[in-house]
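Lay summary. Proteins are chains of building blocks that fold into shapes, and those shapes determine what they do. In this project we predict the shape from the chain. Here is one chain we studied, written as its sequence of building blocks.
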Amino acid sequence: MEMKRSSFVCLGESGGEDALVYQEIPGREGGEEFFLFFAPGAPRQEAFLRTMFREAVSASRLGSPLHYFARVMEQFELATSPAASPATELGNPLENALLLIQIRRGDDAFLLCNRDAALLHWNGETGSLAPLEAVPGIRELSLGGRSGQRDLFDRAPEDCFALHQFETSGFHTIALVPSRDFAERHAETLRNSIFFPSFEIPRETGLALPVERSFPVLHWRSGGTGGARPAAAARKTIPRRVPIAACAGAGLIVLALSILFRGGGDRAAVGESRSRLVAADAQRDTAPRPEPRDEDRSMTRAESRAGAPLSEAWKKAFPAPVTSSPRCEGETVYFGCRDGHLYAYGTDGELRWKYRASDGIGASPLVLNGRIVCADYRGELFCLALESGAPVWKLPLGAKVVSSPAGRDDVLYAATTDGRVVAVRSREGKRLWEKKIGASVRATPAAGKNYVVAATTDGSLVKLDSNGKILWKVVVGGEILSSPLAIEENGIVVVGAPNRSIQARSLATGEIVWKVAADSPVSGSATLEGGVIYVGTRSGSVYAVGLDGAERWRAGAGGTVLSKPAVAGGTVFVTTYGSHLVAFDAATGTVLGRYRADSAIYSSPAVDGGRVYFGSNGGVFVALWLVPTA
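And here is the predicted shape, written in a compact code that computers can read:
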């Protein structure tokens, strides 16, 4: 029997303390093959998964695979017990994570994976995608009897894991792929991750994915009960490139992979890994890609209804993702790109100027006092002349910046990923003060008159005065990615919370004024227009909430919303990680129009009165007309 796995790239030393990939290959045919793969879906899961990974490796010498998996379940329960403080903070510690443990002995194999992942099965005998149940001799083994942990997190261990036993006979490939939500979430944390492996699918599997890399793949070909044809015959009768779009169920997997590797990953970060472990059977897929179908081409154009035509005015392609949100000023739109440039384009689509920063730019520029200010991944805050892009001053902040600078009068506030808020005099770039407020700050602060409010990834909302003194600090919980919205007239600050709520807190004390329950965690930022607050959630719902906390309407955008809505002319524009810009009627929530972009969208939209602008993770910046063109 021939059984092999695709290549993999691991960040971290093989077998070292920072590695979360462990593999044992038998020295002779028929021996045991053992493989573990763990990947967090969010930074806060890393400590828990490392603990569980170490326990899983240490127990790997248990004689029976079933005994081993029982031990893994036991360790999972111990790690999530009330005495384990990280678990109580995590809620469900495996949400959006990827986990795979595989044991093979001869022709018998066991596969344990978390249920939030997806298993893609390729049947080499028929040359097509097939349900997992088509694997010869497959059966799911019960992990029941361990339901006493439901009070600690959303699901019991048997609800988190699935254990399959099957025969490695015939010609088959099983790939573990991320759920769409995992891909969306991990895209933005990939750059900071200690670990993230990727796997290449061998060409002989026949899988046609629109990316060169995928995730853990188990591939085997044997002459067992599956009745496999000889390898030469299989190559003649099985097409190497089978359009994956033919299978509707695999479409979401393709989208998830496209999101992660086209849009969210940082290629430079992968290139800087300390070690690369590549299996000998790795092959790069150089086969020609199938041409897009007419119906696929049409989906890249506007999909609209009356009221918001959303036809393309112009668009530009860039060599890296455009996750920075644009800023409109006069006849110019400004935005950053992960290629390391800040761009200024005229509303006609002509380049006015570009400025080369010291690293990629994910932050959104701020226009203040006739100048433009932004920050890059190296942590350099810089100020440019608005009309020419000429540098005025630069200030190194000492840590990466992903949030956008905020400003009021002549004071700028920048937040860093090491948890500091830095106040800067905008006129000359002088550092006024800095204050450590938490583990990391990824959301844009809210700058007010003599104060600033910032949110941290360890769950705190903090208000500081103009001298950097903490006025109050409250625990919201979870990893806050939603940028706080200060509404001074009503004395409240609004923030989206990971505990599935939209909260308004007192600007004076930080105490809750009102709370709206949401259907999923709220990572998108809120905007205010006409006395109504608009904000999106991870499930794709968009909420319209009054200043009194009363829900006006709720509508579906069709994809995770991590951006901030823009409102103009009675229309709410929202971008989604489902690759769409959606226009809603601001009064009713009725969908007026929908435009499909080339890839996932993290960039928030901006409107200048005649056009709406946004960037995509695929590196395309788009300008759409708001009114029909002649």
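What the prediction tells us: DSSP finds nine helices and 48 strands in the chain.
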